[in-house]
């Protein structure tokens, strides 16, 4: 037996064990691929052969899924895979210089694997550590507060081939940075409190009819809880915290009323794919208040009659997987999950955690469901909507982490109490992820209706030029608008609050966001796939000084096309940062229009640089003789 | 009695469950499209068939017809956007009509003519895509792929083979074939497959018959796309 044979047998055994642990279920493809990669460092052709044999699915299915997610590698990427978070906040904190330093230290080029196959260094979209950046991921484990010293320490650990498990713990320490807590972050709910309150809720007379439905369908009987809890959510005027602000009770009711086919069940999904650059409040909620989130999911399950739940956790939060699984296990032990929860006959519900793998678009609920089903994260055609045809075609609700935590609080304290907090159209509180140019970045919870100015004062931000609210897909506002309020009636937000002082170039901010959308476009529809790539080229052209008014007009035309023709919200909002910054910070663009007439982006002398590099020449003769009197 | 909606002011009858595109097709009204094929479940990815329904843009291949809808399709505004999408598809891949054996039978080319596309307008991407000539009967020229997924759907849903799939993401999305070598010759693909005949552009080409029908006598040489009669659009 050759060395290769032995290696192949070992590989097959690893894959076989992982597939077996996942019940040989192809709908668990994303989880299986993640586990295989964690074990083998990349998804080699041999690993895919083994997966194909073990799962009995076409190879195209495996490669199609693996090729979609940024964190899956069909090419070797080294034993240590370092990805620098490349959000605008990381840029502002100097991540580029640190990346360069690490590459120099390790003698490698960004994006390439070292010749000995040990290490690769590259960039990735925002990893959700904006309040403690610059940040990076090493084999999907997060490290924040990068400094030159930390970079040198990391380089030394890599060079000495210290196994990741033996790296110093303090490197991986992540702060919660809660600066302002209100009813949600300040709650002292104990596990089970909200569920016991939900169980005790008696229905109003008028709700008996809707309660009958639950009885017919074999939901927990005799308590009236499910319909009553739905009523509390309705009274609370709770709206989704993921940004869109859909009325939670309407969504739950639609799911509850959706007919079940034989063998189907209702599904509750918690969207923890917090991918919007600048948002990190779900990370903190899941670190500090995971019980409230799981309890909210269980309350939802009780209200809609669901028996299966998923937490879809973004791959960047891999470090939360084990702690969260431990909490789920404890809750099962406490009969807060599982069969006949808290002794309610028929109240059966359990939660499973699925990890994403680097795909912002999976925050869109139908793409998230596709990913849960083990597919490429492409948004579905709607209608039908998930409430009737969701996970594996079953009625499904998808809500944000913060929505579920709020639902638990409402179950405990009542809808009327909750509706009294905030404004008339926006009940309750909102957690903001504050980052950028301010003295105290971190997590701030406010009742809805707080002004942008108030938040800026609280976090210690002066000399503010602009605030990007709700990330690149949200709005960018200028000082004249700082009296506007956070709320569905004015500025709705998923939570990001990114501050730019007057030293920042708002064109570069928009360009960073355009790069983000281009990287995250799923590629399904023509306008977004090609349009975001064209937009990126045009913004880069302006950046390089080759821009003219013609290019500016092209950018504006592309924005219109993206908004009107795209398949999903990603394409619709991809041009927001550009539209907003053009409207408010036009001089930042005008400065970039350095050419009066159209000038090609293509630079012939630059194009020869590869040839110069290959021949080791950089003398005058290796450059184009410039007709314009420039350097030769 | 069937129900109706209006398309550019014209009354169109539809059966419940039909999409706008299906109903228009049955009534003999052409709406440009590339990823739609009457024999397959609508996909909704190319967005060429976008129309305005009650003032809002939507893909007509996936939007169900509803009674009383006011649909706009053949307007200068919408056609300009369709033209831009067609230009995007041209610059995304490598489409050189004069040297392409699908010329005259190509739906992308015919749609470009239909929309009055005079240039590709945008900067070309010039992607580097290798051709696959490994199969004895079929050549795959990925340079022309527009990611419509028709071959993916045909192979999966009709042939039961899964020979094709999309991999990658965003602008790097690309067609792959079901073999560890990545070559079509190592799959169970045959000329009799449905997937062999659905490509709207020049990716899946039957070998040795590229010019059996001379240029000038091909499908869209005889009648431009959209000039077909009811039910023939594909």
UniProtKB/TrEMBL annotation, chain A:
Keyword Chloroplast (UniProt): no
MF (Gene Ontology): 4 iron, 4 sulfur cluster binding; FMN binding; metal ion binding; NADH dehydrogenase (ubiquinone) activity
Residue ranges annotated for the NADH-ubiquinone oxidoreductase 51kDa subunit iron-sulphur binding domain, each copy included: 507-552
Cofactors: FMN
InterPro entries in the cross-refs: NADH-UbQ_OxRdtase_51kDa_CS, Nuo51_FMN-bd, Nuo51_FMN-bd_sf, NuoE_N, Nuop51_4Fe4S-bd, Nuop51_4Fe4S-bd_sf, Thioredoxin-like_sf
Keywords on record: 4Fe-4S, Iron, Iron-sulfur, Metal-binding
Keyword Aminoacyl-tRNA synthetase set for record: no
Family note: Belongs to the complex I 51 kDa subunit family.
Protein name as catalogued: NADP oxidoreductase
From TrEMBL, chain B:
Cofactor(s) the record lists: [2Fe-2S] cluster; [4Fe-4S] cluster
Domain 2Fe-2S ferredoxin-type per the UniProt entry, residue ranges: 1-77
TM region positions: none
GO MF: 2 iron, 2 sulfur cluster binding; 4 iron, 4 sulfur cluster binding; metal ion binding; NADH dehydrogenase (ubiquinone) activity; oxidoreductase activity
Cell compartment(s), UniProt: Membrane
Gene3D superfamilies, sorted: 3.10.20.740, 3.30.70.20
GO biological process, one term: ATP synthesis coupled electron transport
NAD is among the record's keywords: yes
Cellular compartments per GO CC: membrane
Primary site of residence: membrane
Keywords carried by this UniProt record: 2Fe-2S, 4Fe-4S, Iron, Iron-sulfur, Membrane, Metal-binding, NAD, Translocase
CDD domains: fer2
UniProt family annotation: Belongs to the complex I 75 kDa subunit family.
Full protein name: NADP oxidoreductase
Phylogenetic classification of the source organism: Bacteria, Pseudomonadati, Pseudomonadota, Betaproteobacteria, Rhodocyclales
């Amino acid at each position: 037996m050759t060395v290769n044979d032995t290696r192949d047998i070992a590989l097959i055994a690893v894959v076989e064990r992982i597939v077996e642990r996942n019940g040989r279920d192809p709908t668990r493809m994303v989880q299986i691929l993640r586990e295989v990669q964690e074990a083998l460092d990349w998804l080699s052709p041999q690993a895919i052969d083994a997966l194909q044999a073990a799962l009995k699915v076409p190879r195209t299915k495996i490669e199609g899924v693996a090729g979609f997610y940024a964190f899956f590698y069909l090419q070797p990427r080294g034993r240590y895979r370092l990805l620098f978070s490349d959000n605008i906040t990381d840029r502002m904190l100097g991540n580029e210089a640190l990346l360069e330093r690490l590459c120099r230290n390790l003698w490698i080029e960004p994006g390439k694997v070292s010749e000995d196959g040990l290490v690769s260094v590259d960039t990735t979209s925002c990893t959700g550590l904006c309040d403690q950046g610059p940040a990076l991921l090493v084999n999907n484990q997060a490290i924040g507060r990068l400094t030159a010293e930390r970079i040198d320490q990391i380089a030394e650990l890599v060079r000495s081939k210290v196994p990741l498990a033996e790296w110093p713990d303090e490197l991986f320490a992540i702060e919660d940075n809660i600066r302002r807590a209100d009813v949600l972050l300040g709650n002292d709910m104990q596990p089970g409190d909200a569920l016991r309150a939900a169980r005790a809720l008696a229905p109003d007379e008028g709700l008996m009819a809707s309660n009958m439905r639950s009885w017919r369908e074999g939901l927990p009987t005799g308590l009236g809880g499910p319909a009553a809890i739905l009523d509390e959510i309705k009274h609370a005027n709770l709206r989704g915290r993921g940004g869109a602000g859909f009325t939670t009770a309407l969504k739950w009711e639609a799911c509850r009323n959706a007919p079940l086919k034989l063998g189907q069940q209702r599904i509750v999904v918690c969207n923890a794919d917090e991918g919007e650059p600048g948002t990190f409040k779900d990370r903190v909620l899941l670190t500090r208040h995971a019980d409230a989130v799981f309890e909210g999911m269980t309350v939802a399950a009780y209200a809609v009659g669901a028996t299966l739940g998923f937490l879809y956790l973004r791959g960047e939060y891999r470090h939360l997987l084990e702690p969260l699984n431990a909490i789920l296990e404890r809750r099962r032990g406490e009969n807060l999950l599982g069969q006949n929860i808290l002794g309610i006959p028929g109240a059966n519900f359990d939660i499973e955690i699925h990890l994403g793998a680097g795909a912002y678009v999976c925050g869109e609920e139908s793409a998230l469901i596709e990913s849960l089903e083990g597919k490429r994260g492409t948004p579905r055609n709607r209608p039908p909507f998930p409430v009737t045809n969701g996970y594996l075609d079953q009625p499904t609700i998808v809500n944000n982490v913060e929505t579920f935590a709020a639902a638990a609080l409402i179950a405990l304290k009542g809808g009327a109490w909750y509706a009294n907090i905030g404004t008339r159209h926006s009940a309750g509180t909102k957690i903001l992820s504050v980052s950028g140019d301010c003295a105290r970045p971190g997590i701030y919870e406010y009742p809805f209706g707080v002004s942008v100015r108030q938040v800026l004062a609280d976090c210690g931000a002066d000399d503010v030029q602009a605030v990007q609210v709700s990330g690149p897909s949200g709005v960018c506002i200028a000082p004249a608008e700082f009296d506007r309020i956070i709320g569905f009636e004015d500025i709705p937000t998923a939570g990001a609050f990114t501050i730019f002082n007057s030293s920042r170039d708002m064109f570069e901010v928009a360009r960073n966001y355009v790069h983000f959308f281009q990287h995250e476009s799923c590629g399904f529809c023509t306008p977004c796939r090609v349009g975001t790539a064209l937009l990126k080229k045009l913004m880069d052209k302006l950046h390089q000084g080759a821009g003219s008014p013609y290019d500016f007009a092209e950018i504006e035309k592309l924005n219109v096309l993206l908004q009107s023709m795209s398949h999903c919200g990603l394409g619709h909002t991809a041009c927001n940062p550009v539209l907003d910054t053009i409207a408010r910070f036009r001089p930042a663009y005008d400065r970039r229009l350095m050419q009066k007439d159209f000038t090609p982006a293509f630079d012939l002398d630059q194009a020869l640089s590869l040839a110069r590099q290959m021949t080791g020449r950089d003398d005058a003769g290796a450059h184009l003789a410039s007709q314009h009197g420039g350097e030769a | 009695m069937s129900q109706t909606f209006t398309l550019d002011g014209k009354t169109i009858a539809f059966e419940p469950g039909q999409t706008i595109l299906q109903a228009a097709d049955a009534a003999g009204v052409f709406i440009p499209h590339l990823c739609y094929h009457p024999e397959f479940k609508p996909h909704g990815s190319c967005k060429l068939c976008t129309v305005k329904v009650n003032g809002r843009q939507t893909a007509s291949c996936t939007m169900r017809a509803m009674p009383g809808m006011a649909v706009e399709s053949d307007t200068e505004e919408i056609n300009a956007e369709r033209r831009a999408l067609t230009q995007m598809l041209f610059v995304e891949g490598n489409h050189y009509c004069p040297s392409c054996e699908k010329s005259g039978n190509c739906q992308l080319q015919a749609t470009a003519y239909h929309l009055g596309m005079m240039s590709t307008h945008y900067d070309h991407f010039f992607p580097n895509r290798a051709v696959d000539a490994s199969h004895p009967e079929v050549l795959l020229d990925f340079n022309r792929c527009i990611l419509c997924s028709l071959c993916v759907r045909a192979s999966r849903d009709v042939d039961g083979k899964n020979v094709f799939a999309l991999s990658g993401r965003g602008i790097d999305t690309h067609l792959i074939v079901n073999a560890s070598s990545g070559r079509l010759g190592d799959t169970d693909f045959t000329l009799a497959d449905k997937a062999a005949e659905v490509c709207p552009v020049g990716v899946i080409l039957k070998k040795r018959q590229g010019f059996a029908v001379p240029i000038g006598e091909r499908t869209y040489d005889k009648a431009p796309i959209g000039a077909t009669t009811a039910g023939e659009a594909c």
